[in-house]
Amino acid sequence: MTMEVDILELSERSAKFILSNASAAFANGVRRASLSDVPTLAIDDVNIYNNTSVLFDEQLALRLGLIPLTTDIEEFVPVEECTCGGAECPACKVSLTLSAEGPRMVYSGDLVSSDERVQAADQNVPIIDLKEGQKVVLEAIAHMNYGHKHAKWQAGVACGYKNMPIVTFENCDECGACVNECPKNIIHIGPNGAEISGDDILKCILCKLCASVCEIDAVTVSEDEKSFIFTMESDGSYTVQQLIINAGTTIKEKASRLGEILESL
Amino acid sequence: MLPVRCFSCGKVVSNVWEEYKQRVAEGEDPAAVLDDLGVVRYCCRRMILSHVELVDTLAPYQ
Amino acid sequence: MELKIIDKTEDEMHLEIIGENHTLLNMLKSALLDDKRVQIATYDMKHVSISDPILFVKTDGADPIEVVKDAANNIVNDCDEFLGVFKTAIDI
Fewest CB within 10 angstroms: A34, A187, C25, C61, which? Predict the structure, then answer.
């Protein structure tokens, strides 16, 4: 059986789709890979030349690190995997500078990048509110790395899936108990008793309250073990389409590397 | 300063703070503002709802 | 990724896969269990962030290395299939 993908919603930052005829392990692989195995750029080292703001240097550095930077996965590699051998060449580091004087709010858009492809994904993330006479001058160095090292390198946000719900009604006596019990209000009484129409089934959270409240056991709730409803969101470093493609490619590379090593034994 | 990202899911939340603060001060319902700003999960909503801004309080003590 | 064969007989193998985690190992285990030649396939990771996973395979007599190699190829094919259908789906 071949896999099928049915897109339900798609925007720049978030996607919802149904993946069918896939194994649970594969679905989980895609989810895990997009959260932790797709590398992104994030500020990692900060050289602070002047900081008279209310935040400590460390707090400032943490805030800078968490700002998502637009990344091109073809152009950058993590430092440990770079051909420069840890010397930090343009393929594994990007330097950004920030220089501001109060009174004003400093935003992520004020970071000046040395590489025009690498910019803050959101230009309006507040970094620090500078009061009269306060100053911040720093150089931030962004490195590529993986989500499992630190949450700042996590490209996917709230990525998850659930199995496709299957709810069947048999010999319904139209008592309406399940209609009132459903927390998502998706059950209604149709011509042949209770039913869930059209895409409403996607909203089902598999709570099984409808089955437990039915006195004549007319409702059965189960799940399709080969079909998954995915919700994916990107932090902005990639578009969500790129994120999912990168997740698939990452797993593929891991598996083919394993194949190659075993071949060479 | 509001944390940049949601502690639980990692969504960037601090960029909605100023608009949220302004709109709530103008009398809008916080829940409606959060929905409108795309902060839909309860993990992200608590970041904003429970935030206490201390920058102005700390500013004089350098 | 680095591999270390901890011990191997004709139909069993303990394989340490250094630098990998549940993402690959769970898929690998599932692909191995779909193979008729495999009797047992499982893996163990002592600690989520500091240990390397150890894969255990027991076959009906087939070379465990060949079996794991085929499973890795099946994952590659699955990924190609997923990337193919996903790219067609987003082009619409």
Answer: C61
**Chain A nearest CA to C73, separation (Å):** 7
Look at chain B and count its residues.
62
Q: Where are the beta strands (DSSP E) in A52-155?
A: 93-101, 104-107, 112-113, 126-130, 135-145
What distance in Å separates the CA atoms of residue C75 and residue C79, rounded to the nearest whole number?
6
| A241: chain C residues, CB-CB within 8 Å | 90
Cα separation of B1 and A253, whole Å? 41
β-bridge partners, B12: B5
Whether ipTM > 0.90 holds is yes
pLDDT tens-place string over residues A149-196 = 999 999 999 999 999 999 999 999 889 899 999 999 999 998 888 999
User: How many domains does chain A contain in total?
Assistant: 2
pTM for this prediction? 0.90
Q: Which residues of B touch A66 (CB under 8 A)?
A: 3-5, 12
Q: Which range marks the domain in which residue A198 is found?
A: 4-36+157-232
Q: A–C: how many Cβ contacts below 8 A?
A: 105
Q: Which chains touch B (3 or more CB pairs under 8 A)?
A: A
Q: Which of A132, A152, A172 is the last residue of a domain?
A: A152
Q: What is the gyration radius of the CA atoms in chain B, in angstroms?
A: 12
- C31-71 residue pLDDT tens: 999 999 999 999 999 998 889 999 999 999 999 999 999 99
Task: Flag whether A238 is in a domain.
Answer: no
Q: Closest approach of chain C CAs to the CA of A262, in angstroms?
A: 6
CATH class of the region C2-91:
alpha beta
The closest alpha carbon to C1, from A37, A144, A156, A93, belongs to: A37
- 3+ Cβ–Cβ pairs closer than 8 Å linking B and C: no
